[in-house]
Amino acid sequence: MQQDPTSDRVVKRVVVAGGGTAGWVTATALVRHLGPLLDVTLVESDEISTVGVGESTVPTFKGFHDLLRIKEDVFMSAAQATFKLGIEFENWGRIGDRYIHPFGIIGRRASWMAPFHHFWLHARARGFGGDLGEYCLEHMAGEANRIALDAAPNLGYAYHVDATRYARFLRGLAEPAGVRRVEGKIRAVELHPESGFVDAIVLDSGERIEADLFIDCTGFRSLILGEALGVPFEDWGRWITTNSAVAVQSRSVRPPQPYTSAIAHEAGWRWRIPLQHREGNGLVFCNEFMSDDEARAKLLAEIAGEPLVEPWLLRFKTGMRVDSWSRNCIALGLAGGFIEPLESTSIHLMMAGVTRLIEDFPFNGCSPGLVRRFNEKSRLEFECIRDFIILHYHVTERDDSAFWRRARTMEIPDSLQARLALWREDARAYQLDHELFRIESWSSVLLGQRFAPRGYHRLAEMMPEDALRDFLDRTRGEIAGIVATMPTHPEFLARYCPAPPPE
């Protein structure tokens, strides 16, 4: 008779169900941090392809790698990665507009109790001050296609990575450290008849794999948390209506720039991600306003280089499972939720989830309090990112298509409405403790998409105009001087993390 896996059952055996980026990120993190305390098995099938388009990251990626003691130059060479200092947005506020959401600090503190953008807004109201991006090192370096890691302390950057090569790289770290990989497709999930906990997964081969804790990394299907345990999916499609993407890899025909491009079109937007050996391209759209064939043709017409593969189509829903953790199963990656890729948050969400798991690992069992707290933190993070993505679509002056007319007039979550009201009143922006996106992120997008505040913090008026001019001029001058000393992005890559010879 099987033992009843109650909530206080000791957790020693962990099964990661699914490979790809989510599976190997999870397995590598668990074995590197908790290896002596756990037996970690990863189950994946070579017959099941991964989504393979999560190639753009955010700065928390670097911090996660630091925790895993991964050498940056080694990883970048293996994944044929490039640096990412921010995201370029074209055609979002109006057709023809362009701005950058940089990953660095904008300006600097002036020993006054107000963020920098208030002083900049005050200067602009007086007829001087230039562009906001001139006060951000990452913005100016990105525009000049330059980078140097020792140019300034705390440079804000992330990476563009080849997702397939990255998963392979992580596997090369995880297996020697003790992760056992099992090849096979999951045929069934066995639940305990009394508790409803997961007892085992059964593979097509008939092999039965038991564990105390199961990590569901099975992608959109969510085989364990969604299908077997019945945790429902909360659909946010009423706010984020893009639901499809066509993706293709192309030959590089220009030096890689250190930022991702997000170029809006009449029914969504298009991404361009430069790697060392190729470019990643995709066209995100709402299939209510654009057909699959139209999207494919548009993508192929607009990419710069020769396609290296046949374009492939993806369908998705933006939303999350009502609970990320149910009984003895936690879903990470696409199995737990997905927010469309506009701000490159998918890999961050899986890394943040596994970090929370390590911090609150259920060694003594999946207690209700532990599960509840994990789910609360997961939901807060998902919802804050959701609101930031909705912001890009809603704050626009575009009325050239039905897609944009609906986006600009739709009802938005109360949480986002409250933020917009604060900004409109006097340019107030904030970042909560659990939030990914900083004050600079909100101000860059709001100002970049022409959502002008009616005022700003009047504390900025207390700085004499001569002092403000000098403060802004010195800040711009220091940044320009640093950028001038940097090598170009391609030069730095060739020296620091050259890609291995082609396979």
From TrEMBL:
It comes from the Bacteria. L-tryptophan binds at residue 343. It holds the Pfam family Trp_halogenase. FAD binds at residues 19-22, 334, 347. Keywords: FAD, Flavoprotein, Nucleotide-binding. The active site is at residue 84. InterPro entries: FAD/NAD-bd_sf, Flavin-dep_Halogenase_NPB, Flavin_halogenase, Trp_halogen. 7-chloro-L-tryptophan binds at residue 84. One of its GO terms (molecular function) is nucleotide binding. The keyword Iron does not apply. This is Tryptophan halogenase. It comes from Sphingomonas sanxanigenens DSM 19645 = NX02.
